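Reviewers of the previous submission asked for a worked example of the structure-prediction workflow described in the proposal, so we include one complete record here. The input consisted solely of the amino acid sequence. No template or homolog information was supplied to the procedure at any stage.
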Amino acid sequence: VFGLVPPVSLKGRLETKEEPGQWRITNLRAGRYSLIADMPGYAVSVGSFTIGEGDATVALELVPKRSFAVRVVDLDGAPIRNAAIYAESRGGGGQRDAFDMPLMCGRTKGDGSLIIDEFQADKLRVSAEHPKYGAVHGEVEFGEELLLTLLPPGSIEGILTSNGAAPEAGKYTIIVEWRRNGGVRGPYETVPRMVTPGLDGRFRVAALQPGQYRLMALDALSGLRSPGGIAQMAMSAAMFRGNLQRETVDVVSGQTAQTQLDTGEKPIEGPTAHIFGSVIVDGRVAEGYQVMAFIERRNYMATTDRAGRFDLGTVPAGTAYVTVTSN
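From that input alone, the workflow returned the following structure tokens.
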């Protein structure tokens, strides 16, 4: 990913050849490389080559930039300035893009417009984000102008409870996810909003574009102390989200939706069962092994004790897929 991997310095390596437009790069180790060429008025050109036992040759063609016009307005058609514009190539254009990931292309000017010229594509996915309005998504084809309308935002107000009572202060963070539901997709998955409820469990999330949102409570982000902790929280949320209680809320433009969310696991509906047992590895009791079962879109996990026993507790009746891993 450009910007994360340090580039090879061309100082002392770049030599001009006699033929116009040709250069020679010396002292490269064996391996695979990407070569990038940039020139004002032209699109960034990218090529790949591999250095083996001998020299390699690569040809880059500079072509004029492709420009995509985006304009962001409010419900009355008035321009919205300072909206952040993100874009992703949808392919085409006859040339490889230098960026195969969504880019932050800039912010709209006073007339609500921005020209995107970082991609050599036939079509782009585009998002506009503004702290006052929220985010809106669209697609634009080369030669057209994309008009994105940010409607008057709505909000969500609610109360978080723990078994019907106020939760422990600072223990939970509420995650608010936008649900696409078959609508236009942006260049990236919309980043969930996060909010910490007050001492009485009340919370408010503002600047939401009309649509459907899903809420759930996770352990508070304030308890995270490292990137590894963030990754572990994300993995845990993905694995056990089916177990958590969630609420779906429809947000209407200019209005406040009310909801109530409870912590803890979602109650099991229908018949239940009990999974327990023991783990033997190579004829010996397996202590400290993790046992996980996936059943009816829920995950259950337990660690074997000194006798190799585990107990996953009460689960929905059905077919369970069980895995065992060592620590």
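The helical segments are 227-240. We consider this example representative of the routine output the project will generate in years two and three.
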